[in-house]
Specification:
Helices cover 32% and strands 23% of the residues. Helix 1 runs parallel beside helix 2. It is α/β, with parallel strands linked by helices. The termini are close together. It has eight helices and twelve strands. Helix 3 links the parallel strand 3 and strand 4.
Length: 208
């Protein structure tokens, strides 16, 4: 099971998370309390292992801005967290993660044929498009609607609930941000514990 740690804003946390086994690091370029500058993201990305995904999170940004940031930072994946269209997704030069604020299977049905390499299932929108630390009902998700995509599960995950989440959704990757924070800042011990929980032995018969 793969793990993405999102909302990284400093070099030490990025390096340490990847050392603990994070498979993807997320940089938020949209409005958020975890928004990172292009310069800082570039610095962090330069210290990460080649095999770790460097994911840029964008909300309704222009293609030109996304491509420029991706090139500067050295992103490997683009996460679209807004109202981007299928044609917009197809026009991008890197693999796309299309985020969906899950509010029922009707909205999920509309993404079944969306041209993206991954679908990220997140909680309904709060103040920001993501990273709000709230959980949605995983049992409401229709397995048939997500069977053809690599699914990344987000939304209020933490060490206490991630096992249940994985057993129910059986995603390709889990994505955590606020669940590994203390007082709004990334907590290295929580990151370590979360990754160990996800990757340590077996969860629900799924090989890690």
């Amino acid at each position: 099971m793969k793990v993405k740690i999102c909302g990284i804003t400093d070099v030490e946390t990025g390096i340490t998370a990847s050392r603990y086994g994070a498979d993807a690091i997320g940089f938020v370029f949209a409005e958020s309390k975890r928004k990172v500058s292009i310069e800082k993201a570039t610095e962090i990305a330069a210290h990460l292992p080649k095999e770790v995904f460097k994911v840029g999170v964008f909300v309704n940004e222009t293609k030109e801005e996304i491509e420029e940031i991706a090139s500067c930072v050295g992103l490997t994946h683009i996460q679209l967290h807004g109202d981007e269209t299928a044609s917009f997704s197809e026009s991008l030069s890197l693999p796309v993660i299309k985020a969906l604020s899950f509010q029922g299977n009707e909205s999920l049905e509309s993404l079944k044929d969306f041209p993206s390499d991954f679908i990220l299932l997140d909680s309904p929108k709060g103040k920001y498009r993501g990273g709000n630390g709230t959980v949605f009902n995983w049992r409401e998700v229709s397995p048939q609607l997500i069977s053809s995509k690599k699914v990344i599960l987000a939304g209020g995950l933490h060490v206490g609930n991630v096992e249940d989440a994985i057993n129910i959704i059986q995603p390709y990757m889990v994505d955590v941000s606020s669940g590994v924070e203390t007082n709004g800042k990334k907590d290295l011990e929580k990151i370590k514990t979360f990754i160990e929980k996800v990757k340590g032995s077996l969860i629900g018969g799924i090989t890690k």
